[in-house]
Design goal:
Elements lengths: L1 E4 L11 H13 L3 H25 L5 E8 L4 E10 H12 L6 E10 L5 E4 L6 H9 L5 H7 L15 E4 L3
Parallel strand pairs: 3-4
Antiparallel strand pairs: 1-4, 2-3, 5-6
Helix pairs in contact: 4-5
Length: 170
């Protein structure tokens, strides 16, 4: 359990700037504090649902999975019980590698505990081979990192700066 930090400006675009602009415009017209709070609650709920749909689209699941989003702090809180450590870590990455999310509060448990992975934030010029060389001492082990980040990664060459990757134990 803990908090994992992410780059807010990097990641999947599940909720766009048009939604943010529309919410800001509606808020500017809102006459009461209660109306503003209700609009914020609705926007946060919509963002949480978008993240849950993204997790499901990656064929990941957990018993009692619950995702909450707080737009004011750009934070996601995720809870539930994953079948294994890898699934838990992939769910956390799905929550955090979303544009507009700066941190993920991990309240998840695991049915079958295992060693936790390390994480690496991709920087410009990174390749999976270079990351494998850094963590494992062997660039040819890049498929291990690629497999550990599937289905979020669809090709070993398609990583982007700001993306957080799991680096499983060797």
């Amino acid at each position: 359990m803990g908090i994992v930090s992410f780059f807010k400006e990097a990641g999947e675009k599940l909720f766009g700037s048009k939604d943010t602009e529309a919410a800001a415009a509606a808020a500017a017209q809102a006459p009461s504090q209660a109306d503003l709070q209700e609009r914020a609650r609705a926007a946060n709920d919509a963002a949480a649902q978008a993240i849950e749909k993204y997790i499901a689209a990656q064929s990941l699941s957990a018993d009692g999975l619950a995702v909450e989003f707080d737009g004011a702090s750009s934070a996601v809180t995720v809870s539930g019980q994953a079948a294994d450590q890898a699934t838990k870590e992939k769910i956390l990455l799905c929550c955090g590698n979303v544009q507009g999310v700066a941190s993920v509060s991990d309240l998840m448990t695991v049915a079958q505990p295992a060693d936790e992975s390390q994480y690496h934030t991709v920087v410009r010029g990174d390749t999976l081979s270079a990351i494998a060389k850094k963590f494992y001492g062997n660039a040819n082990l890049y498929p291990k990192i690629f497999e550990a980040n599937k289905p979020m990664l669809t090709h070993p060459d398609k990583i982007y700066p700001g993306q957080l990757l799991r680096i499983p134990p060797n």
